[in-house]
Structures are given as structure tokens and as C-alpha cells.
Design goal:
By secondary structure, the chain is of the alpha/beta class. It contains twelve helices and twelve strands. Strand 6, helix 9 and strand 7 form a beta-alpha-beta unit. Helix 1 crosses helix 2, helix 1 crosses helix 3 and helix 2 packs across helix 3. The protein is elongated.
């Protein structure tokens, strides 16, 4: 049933005359109020020639801000990972007939990024928040546009965040190791503390408690998440520790690759001497030696959901409720874990 003017006025919290002026493109209402009323009318199924000609989806532009803060996590090894985010966003944008743009910022100060995008002719932003902290994310409020963050999860901020379910993925890792007889499990952490790594570490500790496994601090290692530096940091640990656990959980695949290289350089056999599990399921994981057991993340789905949430903000700003959405992954079993 076609909505009445009164229905639209009630939903928008404005007068009947304001709705009439907005829908008939008459003077008397501000541009922002007109957009709000029209967005509500479109959502409710109301159509006029003015709406069709000026507020169709083809006139909506969204932009992805791909931000590299320091490059220790978002780098060339993660290009395929980021590309899947972009493909998910773009495929949903095509379905909705939105225009899709990308801006890439490499090690630029957040204030510089915000100044560069303040006057961008777009209707909303999706921000890659992988390497950003809570304070840096809070600065984006200055853009005053609908916004969604991906690849981060900050429940104490009033933003939409779409992220992988790090706790669920980490539980699957510990459960798999436990089911394969491992009772001594170490953790290879990142020296760069981003939100996803923090949640994986917290999930690891919780899962260890669930299975009544000992948490041995001497088997917790901090390494630089960049591949070459992870090799060095893991090598330094191995040179000073003769006793090792039966398995290491590495907070991401790149860290795992570096640890495996350091272990092989010291004549450890994987998984015969020690088992390794990663997180992210980057393309090289299937081709490493041995192939890496890891957690697959549905980055395409995360990108798609981010665009859906942004569209909700653009179309129905008055009813927007911020959400933190976690997309579950699955464990991909390969050859880097030994059954004890």
C-alpha cells in the first residue's frame, strides 16, 4: 500500500507541510531535512518524478578508505585479503546501483586523511580500521557522514563495526589442538597491538581455560608481524629456549610463516617436532611447506555486510542503531598439525 503523507511525516517527526514541500521540491525546508524526508519516503515505498530523477540509487556514492598506518599488518602479503573486502563491498554496491570509489592512504596522519576527505562528494564511507586504535577511529566523526569500519571491533565506540569473530576462530584452533592430543600450547603474539590481535589473545586464554590447559607464560612469544622481522624475533627466542610446547598458535598467517621459517632454519620439522596453526587463511597458506592449518575468514561477506549497514544509514538515518557485527570463520585443516 502506498504510504500517505501523514505516515511519512510521523516517521520523520516533522509537519505535513514540511513533507509536502520536500517531496514537491519547494522552498521552505533545508537541504538536509529534504534529504531526510525523501530518504524515509523512499524506504516506505513512496515515489514521485522528483524522487526518481534526483534521489535514485545511481546518485549515491560510497567510498572505501584503505588506510595503512604503519604497514606491519596491512602490507603486500595481505593484498589478497584486502581485495576480498573490496570485492564484497563492490558486489553489494553493484546490486544496489551505488557508485563505488576507493582512496588509499599510506602512512598518512589521520588528521591529514580527514582533511582530505572532508569535502568529498560522497554519501558515506567504509574505513579499513585494521591498524587504527580507538582514538584514531574517534577522529572520523569530523567527516559527519554515514560511516562503517571494517576489520576492527570497538564495542565502546558509537560506530558500526563489521569484523571477523576472532574469539570463535581462536576457540576452534585450541579445540582442534586439544582433540589432536596437544596439552602444551604456546602463543606467538604480535608486538603491534591491534584490536583483532587483542581479541585473539583473549580468546586463546579463554579457550585454554575451557579445556583446562595450562597457560605457560614462557611459551608466549612477541614477534614483529612483518614476515622478515618475525623470522628474526622467533629465531632469537629459539636460540635462547631449548624447551618448546608441542604446538604454537600464531595470531596471523604471516607470523606463522615467519615462525615456520625460523624453526626450519634450526632443523625443527613441522609438524613432527612442533605443530603450527595460523589465522586468516592467506593464499600462501595452501602452498607453504607444510601447508598451514589456519582459520578462514569470510572477508567477502564482511565487505558485503559493511555496504548493507552503510546503506541503512544513508537511507534511514533516523532509525540507525550502531551495531558491532561479527562474521564467523571456519578452521581449514592442512598439514601443519601432528596428531599426538
Amino acid at each position: 500500500m502506498t504510504p500517505r503523507i501523514a505516515d511519512i511525516a510521523k516517521a520523520a517527526g516533522v509537519s505535513l507541510s514540511a513533507v509536502s514541500l520536500a517531496l514537491n521540491n519547494k522552498d521552505g525546508v533545508s537541504t538536509e531535512l529534504r534529504k531526510k524526508i525523501v530518504a524515509i519516503a523512499v524506504t516506505m515505498g513512496y515515489r514521485t518524478s522528483f524522487i526518481e530523477n534526483n534521489f535514485s540509487n545511481e546518485n549515491i556514492t560510497i567510498k572505501l578508505l584503505k588506510i595503512v598506518k604503519h604497514g606491519h599488518i596491512v602490507n603486500e602479503r595481505h593484498n589478497a585479503f584486502i581485495t576480498e573486502y573490496m570485492e564484497g563491498i563492490e558486489s553489494c554496491a553493484k546490486k544496489k546501483k551505488y557508485k563505488f570509489e576507493v582512496s588509499f592512504f599510506n602512512r598518512a596522519p589521520i588528521e591529514e586523511i580527514i582533511n582530505a576527505e572532508k569535502n568529498a562528494a560522497v554519501d558515506g564511507f567504509i574505513v579499513l580500521g585494521t591498524e587504527l586504535n580507538a582514538h584514531e577511529l574517534s577522529l572520523f566523526v569530523e567527516l559527519a557522514k554515514p560511516m562503517v569500519f571494517i576489520d576492527t571491533y570497538l564495542p565502546y565506540l558509537i560506530y558500526d563495526c563489521i569484523d571477523m569473530d576472532n574469539a570463535d576462530g581462536t576457540f576452534r584452533v585450541v579445540q582442534y589442538l586439544y582433540n589432536n592430543g596437544h596439552r602444551s600450547i604456546g602463543l606467538v603474539r604480535s608486538s603491534y597491538k591491534v584490536q583483532n590481535f587483542k581479541m585473539r589473545e583473549a580468546g586463546f586464554l579463554e579457550a585454554m581455560g575451557y579445556f583446562s590447559l595450562p597457560v605457560q607464560e614462557n611459551f608466549f612469544i612477541n614477534v614483529d608481524p612483518a614476515f622478515d622481522k618475525a623470522i628474526i624475533d622467533m629465531g632469537n627466542y629459539l636460540d635462547n629456549h631449548l624447551k618448546l610446547p608441542t604446538a604454537f598458535f600464531c595470531l596471523n598467517d604471516t607470523i606463522a610463516y615467519g615462525c615456520m621459517k625460523a624453526l626450519r632454519d634450526r632443523n625443527y620439522q613441522i609438524p613432527q617436532d612442533i605443530s603450527i596453526i595460523g589465522f586468516d587463511d592467506l593464499p600462501p597458506s595452501n602452498m607453504s611447506e607444510p601447508s598451514l592449518t589456519t582459520v578462514h575468514v569470510s572477508t567477502h561477506r564482511i565487505g558485503w555486510r559493511a555496504l548493507e549497514k552503510l546503506a541503512d544509514q544513508i537511507v534511514s538515518p533516523q532509525s540507525h542503531i550502531p551495531e558491532n557485527i561479527l562474521v564467523a570463520g571456519n578452521l581449514v585443516v592442512r598439514n601443519s598439525v601432528r596428531h599426538i
